[in-house]
Design a protein that fits this description.
This protein has 94 residues and is α+β, with helices and mostly antiparallel strands. It has 4 helices and 3 strands.
Length: 94
């Protein structure tokens, strides 16, 4: 399994459904939005997550986004991300 930070694992588990960037910031234990931004960029680069669409316009995306304006997009998991999420859930202590 991919060696992810705790923040990366949190983000993966939050992206079960499409989520806006600001909601990811609000729901993680990391108070620094720049750390969340960097971790999400990493997850996108590793093909675990992808931009789903622009919030304001409703335009759907699959791979392109402006990384300087990540707060304008919503994000979701890729198939590879869902596999990782499943592995994380199975690994959690009961």
């Amino acid at each position: 399994m991919e060696d992810l930070s705790e923040l990366g694992k949190e983000i993966i588990l939050l992206l079960v459904f499409e989520e806006e960037f600001n909601k990811l910031i609000a729901e993680t234990t990391e108070p620094n939005k720049h750390a969340v931004k960097d971790e999400l960029r990493y997850l996108i680069a590793k093909d675990f997550a992808k931009p789903a669409g622009e919030i304001e316009t409703g335009i759907r995306h699959g791979f392109s986004y402006d990384s300087d304006r990540m707060f304008e997009y919503s994000y979701c998991l890729t198939a590879k991300g869902y596999q990782l999420m499943e592995a994380l859930i199975q690994k959690k202590p009961k």
